[in-house]
Amino acid sequence: MFDNADALLLARLQFAFTVSFHFLFPAFTIGLASYLAVLEALWLKTGKALYLDLFRYWVKIFAVNFAMGVVSGIVLSYQFGTNWAVFSDKAGPVVGPLLAYEVLTAFFLEAGFLGVMLFGMNKVGRGLHFTATLMVALGTLLSSFWILAANSWMQTPQGHSIGANGQFIPANWLEIIFNPSFPWRLMHTVTGAYLTTALVVGGVGGWHLLRGNGTPQVRKMFSMAMWMAALVAPVQVFLGDQHGLNTLEHQPVKIMAIEGHYESHPDGAPLYLFGIPNDSEQRLDHALAIPKVGSLILKHDPNAPMAGLDTVPDAEQPPVAIVFWSFRIMVGLGLLMFTLGLASLWARWRGTLYDWRGLHRFALAMTPAGFVAVIAGWVTTEVGRQPYLVYGLLRTADSASPLAAPAVGASLVAFVVVYFAVFGVGIWYLLRLMHKPPEPGEPDPERTEREPIRTAGIMPGPAQHPGSTEGAP
Amino acid sequence: MNVDLTTIWAFIIAFSVFAYVVMDGFDLGIGILFPWLTVGHGRNRAMNSIAPVWDGNETWLVMGGGGLLAAFPLAYAVILPATYPLIIAMLLGLIFRGVAFEFRHRDERHRAFWDFSFFGGSLVAALAQGMTLGAILQGIKVADRIYAGSWWDWLTPYTLLTGLGVVAGYALLGACWMIWKLEGDIQDKAYRLAFRAGIATLALLAAVSFYNLTLRPDYQERWLAMPNILFTSQVPLLSAIMAGFFFYGLKKRWELAPLLLTLALFLLGMAGLGVTIWPYVVPDTLTIWDAAAPESSQIFMLVGVVIILPLILAYTGWSYWVFRGKVGSEGYH
Question: What is the pLDDT of residue B102?
């Protein structure tokens, strides 16, 4: 049963499906939590009701998105055991504590303060409510820290020994956490989440501007999102480049697959813009190449020699086509984001930020680009480290649970049906919320859409609309 | 029993599981009782009473799972494949339950569907959790550090009984929570539901306990042999006393006491579980020391637990405090 190739493939499909679907939600949650903290801070600092309107508008969207992130995330914390039992037994001593720290420092923090953030504005003071919002945002970032430490250790493992029972035994936790690929992966992922959120906010803003709902709230959020795109997209391009160089150093085979370098190039490698990877013949068909630029980008020297997949045994190679294409999707979208940022700067300089319909359409079209790019990026890095789960040490094929293919197949079908149905409806609700523009005096979700939660101890405070009288310095 | 890191970790995991069972227990219990609550008004108030805290409550499940992977990776790697369909069912149930909190406010026209999703998700999750407990107690085949049984081993009359027991127990917790947090007609309803759920819980608890004695010879030994029985007999004895106070409290319409007495019953259940299984995680097969992670893992995490867990308990307590008092109905604000 353990060599059961079908069961293994189904287990891999199941993990790929559940983890990709899950990541859509935190990719938005991480950025939106920080955005909400910024909005509330601006409201408290300036006293302008506009910021509170935007906070209340986006916090409703945040709540729906967060709930889907939570329930799809719990699946993952159990799926290591249900489907990857050998991995859990062997790598549990290293990966387990990192996940436990994620729960302790991040999940409890988010969950503990989320209730106050969503429902507590009339029950605690403004300072405390702002603290709750900050804690939720901090929780999302801490969560990224630990989960990416765990993932990065699996990519570039160090700081452990291997015990007699085959387990990875932690020896130096600082080395494990701050493994070589961790800092770049963390920065690249969190920045990606921020960009994803900026593109959603910008897309919603662009949509309402196109529909003629150019309220001050819509203008403000569109402007903030375009600042993010203009400032953060270049940073992301830089971080991506550095992350790539880091991968070249520690996982060169992944870079060979990304670049489509089947053959070695002793006098400088080309940059293949396109091509059809052909694993069985070990060559890139119909390649469109720029000579020497591959070496120039990766080695900063056009003539630097670069080894190709011909130096790597077939059994050690990742599937090239997936990695080759997912990488190009990510980079292509990244360059479009960069272009959107530049276009917004141009429009701002010309004073047409709120009038240039071409820009609004561009922003609207880019709404899902962040999600597609982060998933493409994860596909690149996860497929690129195959055939290993713990790079160089534990093969994916040796990590699965002793399950029969029908069991894994049935659960895969169940996940696919439920995720598309439930989260599809959830995403529909999100779109419906976004379809309505934020308005002056955006209602407090707690007081209008739910029955109010009355407490015995505290009289409900006055409506939280400071206007211009409170909070101003 | 020598107190070492592994023992400490067994207690931390047990604490997490207990925290999950009682806290998400009343959330899931309200879901299980949802069909008995009046559509609209009653259900809204019941859900509002847990809306600010359910997510934190559910986090204890991730703590239990993540903690098990970290502290007892071999147990995690054996138990989850052995109970595969149950775990998948639980996860799917928790999805339907969790999204219902948000979705039923977003879509008036389909509120009936999300109400059913809240009920069905809660019921399936509770049943799966109870059956998983039973599947562990009845024993799991292990060979060469992996699960060696078939994928239907978990389905027996015993596990069905433990599953129903947990469903009844959660319903009891949910009813007691509503007695405490709500008032008026829905509180009257909660008193009646608590009475019925109390009877069902005690009956199933007794049935599981007797079944348990026939399940494995060593379980009988652990509970009934002298001198153990002098201590073990305290568990059912105290349970009976708590049950007596519980029904007396319902009759006197005490508001908080039924919840506290139910918690005491769950604590006694946990103690009974300890008597049955300690120091094994998989009966007769894996002790906590067999399954334990290396010391370097245990120490690293213990530092985090010692520092962070008190903080978690503090701000969780604060969050409950913010939302203290009765959850009112419309028209109060």
Answer: 85
Domain count, chain B: 1
User: Of chain B residues 183-222, which have a CB less than 8 A from chain A?
Assistant: none
A74 and B94: CB-CB below 8 Å? Answer: yes
What number is the ipTM of this complex?
0.87
Asked if residue A13 is part of any domain, the answer here is yes
CA distance B164 to chain A (A): 23
Q: Which of A351-355, A375-379, B303-307, B328-332 has the lowest mean pLDDT?
A: B328-332
pTM of the model: 0.88
Domain count, chain A: 1
Q: Is residue A443 part of a domain?
A: yes
pLDDT band at A460 (very low <50, low <70, confident <90, very high): very low
Residue with tokens 């507590």: A120
Residue by residue, DSSP assigns A101-127 as HHIIIIIHHHHHHHHHHHH-TTTS-HH
**Nearest CA-CA partner of A205 in A216, A195, A196:** A216
Helix (H) or strand (E) holding A189, with range, is helix A182-210
A455 to B323: CB separation less than 8 angstroms, yes or no: yes
A468: in domain: no
Q: Is B44 near chain A, with CB under 8 Å? A: yes
| Per-residue pLDDT tens digits for A250-287 | 999 999 899 888 888 888 889 988 888 888 888 888 88
* Beta carbons of A100 and B301 less than 8 Å apart: yes
Q: Is B302 on the interface with A (CB under 8 A)?
A: no
Establish if B170 touches chain A: CB-CB under 8 angstroms. Answer: no
Mean pLDDT computed over every residue of chain B: 89
Give the gap in angstroms from C-alpha B72 to the nearest C-alpha of chain A: 8
Helix A126-155 and helix A85-102, axial crossing angle in degrees, nearest 10: 150
> Phi/psi class of residue B167: alpha, beta or left (left: φ > 0; alpha: ψ in -120 to 50)?
alpha
Q: Where does B72-216 have alpha helices with state H?
A: 73-82, 84-106, 111-137, 157-181, 185-215
> Can you tell me which residue has the tokens 């008597």?
B275
Does residue B6 form part of some domain? no
Q: Are A263 and A306 in contact (CB under 8 A)?
A: no
Residue B125 corresponds to which tokens in the numbers above? 């999750």
DSSP A310: G
On whether residue B220 sits in a domain, the answer given is yes
Encoded tokens for A103: 């729960």
B45 touches chain A (CB under 8 A): yes
Residue B331 falls inside a structural domain: no
What is the chain A residue with the closest CA to B113?
Answer: A422
Residue B4 lies in a domain: no
Partners of residue A170 in chain B, C-beta under 8 Å? 294, 296-297, 300
Q: At what angle do helices B111-137 and B73-82 cross, to 10 degrees?
A: 120
Domain containing B54 equals 16-322
Residue span of the structural domain in which A79 resides = 5-448
Residue A460 lies in a domain: no
Integer CA distances (angstroms), B65 to A106, A382, B60, B313, in order: 15, 24, 9, 19
* Cβ atoms A18, A414 nearer than 8 A: no
